[in-house]
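Hey,
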Amino acid sequence: MQIGIVGLPFSGKSTLYQTITKTHLDPSALTKTEAHHAMVKVPDMRLDRLSALFSPKSTVYATIEFVDVVGLKKGESGSTQFTTNFLGSVKTNDALVQVVRLFTDGAVPHPDGSVDPVRDLATFEAEFILSDLAIVETRIDRIKKQLMKLQDDHLKRELPVLEKCHQALGSEHPLREVAFTRDESLVLKNYQLLSAKPMLIALNFDETQRATAEAETKRIAAAKEGKNTKAVSFFGKIEMEMSELPDDEAKVFMEEYGIRESALDTLIREAYALLGLQSFFTVGEDECRAWTVRTGSTAQEAAGAIHSDFVNKFIRAEVVHYDHFIEHGGSFAKAKEAGQWRLEGKEYLVKDGDILSIRHS
């Protein structure tokens, strides 16, 4: 899964990227035109506990790739220019984190002259909608011309889906707010439309705004949250300092500032929810590992995440939920005696926190 971090100049975008990836970049690197990529382990206390029980040779966490997307420029008028390079880079991301500035700093002026988070959010949304509208209109015109020459069933199925998109975009509604069927989503998948991507809004406050941050986050969330959109808050400078500390010191730091959860934990938790993802585990003396699948995945699909051969060779899955496993002392035998360990077929819907052992031919 790849999550792109975007934001207007001086919003704290690169600060957030460096904080959650713990890749503290030289200031000169931030002016380069290449995007920065980093793989981040998904923190999971359940996997930590399982690893402590089994003492495996290796513990493998699920990972997420974060990308510090570059390409925004300040135009001659002072406003931000959304370059082709930027829009092209965003297309490859599965979801987006938009960093929005709420802090004030006279030494770092806002590119539009004042701090206005709702305006900044609208600026991004408008650019994404315009980009999508251009793509959709071009494709609709091309399909109609092709259908005049050849009656193609695939094009006939594609056209009404694009027209549905055109209607929403023409009404200035992002596509993430539109309900699409599974078949319609498959038609649109290859277009990588920007306004269809799940959006996590990360509101960047400074430490002087701790008293008002929660109320301000709720205000903006009420205005902007919707289908596949969520708003969260973070304190960029504080989080940056905290990311440079050892874990035990970072915990004390968080307590002093009243931070309940790190920016990394918040972003991953909310990104999983937006993308409909969940984790299951495999355990043993050799390895304890977290795997990521979409919510609603079957046992056979989960087996395929472990190894593609397991899909066709799947026989059964041994299943016990993490909570039940721990409840019975981390013992498969006791969980089985209690009826919590069981065999499931290929249509079993895997739950977040399931511990699986795949039987295959």
